[in-house]
Amino acid sequence: MPLLPRRFERIKAVLDQRIDDLTVVLEQVDKPHNLSAILRSCDAVGVLEAHVTSLPGRPRTFNRTAKGSHKWVPLHPHPDIASALRPLKARGFRIYGTHLGVSAMDYRRCDFTGPTAFLLGAEKWGLSPEATELVDQAIFIPMVGMVQSLNVSVAAATLLFEARRQRDQAGLSPTRGEGLAADLYQERLFEWSYPSVAAWCREQGRPYPPLGAEGEILEELPRTVKLRY
After folding, report:
1. Are 138 and 103 in contact (CB under 8 A)?
2. Kind plus residue range of the DSSP H or E element containing 117
3. Are 131 and 121 in contact, with CB atoms under 8 Å apart?
4. pLDDT band at residue 150, thresholds of 50, 70 and 90?
């Protein structure tokens, strides 16, 4: 079935507010509930994509908590934490790691309006020494209870919404797609609108067809591909 115009407008409205310079990096956070809840928070604040390293043999799965968020926020796997963080650092991201230490700062005192990556570890172990070495600023979320740690998905949500609040307050949150490069915007627009056709194009090694004003594909494609709409 062709994409309905109202569906296309909804996709564009969400993509218009996506942010390419805010992300989370998860180190060995493998529980389906936590992964699902974190991606749902990412989607809610407009994060474009997230990153993860996992323990060997631990598949990444999602549960109903995600509400389909994993379809809209790709979770990129990396073999180790350095492979996940160094490309972000090369792009100018500042890495904020949830780690209690003498140099840790109250997250509310930090400026998250620039390129920001929140690095979170599994609740049982926290961040590894390798990850801690790559952090630019250790942060903590103040608590007054007997337990001095939050569920990792709650911590991620707290940090992400603070980053979004700061950007909203500074007038930096995108509203018309300015949070993404133009070519990346068009790429994601096609993938979100026609995921099956996008997969076929990648298999064929060919560019995505252009889209019309109402989301229609402006290119004649094989009939077998049209059935994927």
Report:
1. yes
2. strand 116-121
3. yes
4. confident
Helix (H) or strand (E) holding 182: helix 182-193
- 62 pLDDT band, cuts 50/70/90, is low
Residue tagged 């740690």 (tokens): 149
| Whether 45 contacts 22, CB under 8 Å | yes
- CA–CA distance from 41 to each of 20, 85, 127 (Å)? 15, 21, 21
Q: Look at the pTM and tell me if it is higher than 0.85.
A: yes
For the residues 183-202, what does the mean pLDDT come to? Answer: 95
Phi, psi (deg, nearest 5) at residue 105: -120, 145
Those residues with Cβ within 8 angstroms of residue 50's Cβ, 6 or more apart along the chain or in another chain:
23, 24, 25, 26, 38, 39, 42, 73, 74, 75, 76
Alpha carbon distances (Å) from 187 to 86, 194, 208: 24, 11, 8
Q: Report all structural domains of the chain as residue ranges with CATH numbers, in order of start.
A: 1-18+175-229 (no CATH), 21-169 (3.40.1280.10)
